[in-house]
Amino acid sequence: MSAFDCDVLVVGLGPVGSALTALLADRGVRVIAVDKDAAPYPLPRAVHFDHEIMRIFQQLGLAEQMRRCARDLPDYEFRAADGGVLMNLRPPRETPSGWGGGYMFHQPSLERVLRKRLEVLPNAELRLGQRFDSVVQDAGGVTANVTTPTGAEAVRARYLVGCDGASSLVRDAIGGGLFDYQFDEPWLVVDVKVGAGCQLPAVNIQLCDPARPTTCVLSGPGRHRWEFMLLPGETAEAMMDDAVVLDLIRPWDCGPVEIERRAVYRFHGLVANRWRASRVMIAGDAAHQTPPFAGQGMCAGIRDTANLAWKLDAVLRGRAADTLLDSYQAEREPHVRSAIELAIGMGRVVCTLDPKAAAERDAAMLAAQAGGAPALPRMQPAPFACGCVLAGSAGAGELFPQPTAGADTARLWMDDRLGDQACLIARASIAGAAAGVRLLDVDAEDLAPFRPALLAWLDQHQAEAVLVRPDRYVFGAGAPGVLLGAWEESLNPRATALAASAGSLG
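Now predict its structure.
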């Protein structure tokens, strides 16, 4: 009998913890996931995810189900106090993932889809209504102390990942600490169900009104959200009053709505200093928190899971050294910081209460719009500069595009043909085998529908081949033999060095 209850213990079963549990269990990793609540949180929180997150849902076989609890991202308009458009951010027509530029969704519906997926995965065990208390590490694994409805229990695992939110006990357990961007603004968030005959804007709106900065955005089907900045002297308790909420909504003249939720949040930017301490890691809000203006809070957390899941799997299978896990924070933190800094930049534009400063801001944004220059930068994080990539090679650290073929009703998606392992895609067939890497040439039957797009990518990067990681990021491009050797070195630096040393001695 194994001394371990599971390979990975996941603490927290919000969208991030659920996604990580599913990604790991799909790979055959034995996961126990604990959550202090017996059911998903029943009210809306996050309302936006982007194309890359839909690609991850596709990997889990959930894309079509997620589309049913979401709607396509509309334009995002920044408006002046008089309603004039200062800037219009249109969703991109094409994305690297092949999916739409973004989606507005209903979080409880999304979480139900994830939970149903977890319930049928044989390698995933959900333990609900159980609270994580503490963890002790040793050379072989971790022992977590958990409070259950029947008393205290210990769970033995090889690794533990805390997806337990902004007040993470796991982060505290590893001494994570927090870097604070010093952006802290209280906002009232109001979610409503849309009644019959209700007329609400078909676009997302950021109203840059110094009298009351306000956000008005779509949520999932049949729902809408407002966010109202609290003004100096206003308290959270007073703003939650029904009469105050209705007074704030009334100027929108939208018709009948049913208030589903109201809450006061502090929009801030925080990043944990440490995401890993040996066998314990953190992800999602436990590792970073961002203001909502760029819609990247949940997205960043689910990107964490895609980055971490394949690395944990490789280490657990003995295909990679434990040091591979050091690349998790090295790769993800710069992405996270770029999203937080963009959101804070957008927030500083919006949260202007001085009328004179607001007028100057409006004039500058209109001038930029008239000159064809973007008033704000788009969300476009830089490629991984370090970590598990062949630095300096063409395309290294970029998200590899997913070509599609066929019509919407019978569309073919390249990722569905690749599987969940690393892939070396080359112009010509490659002899031999490589552990954990699928070898494909552009003429392979599985890739035939996507051959023109793949050749175009290789031509653009002047490469014979590309090695794509399991999370669909580019390890590197170049000669096949060089890529395979560098990949093995990246996964097992010590073993590769020892093999080379033994060869020189022999």
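Residues 326-350 form the longest helix (25 residues).
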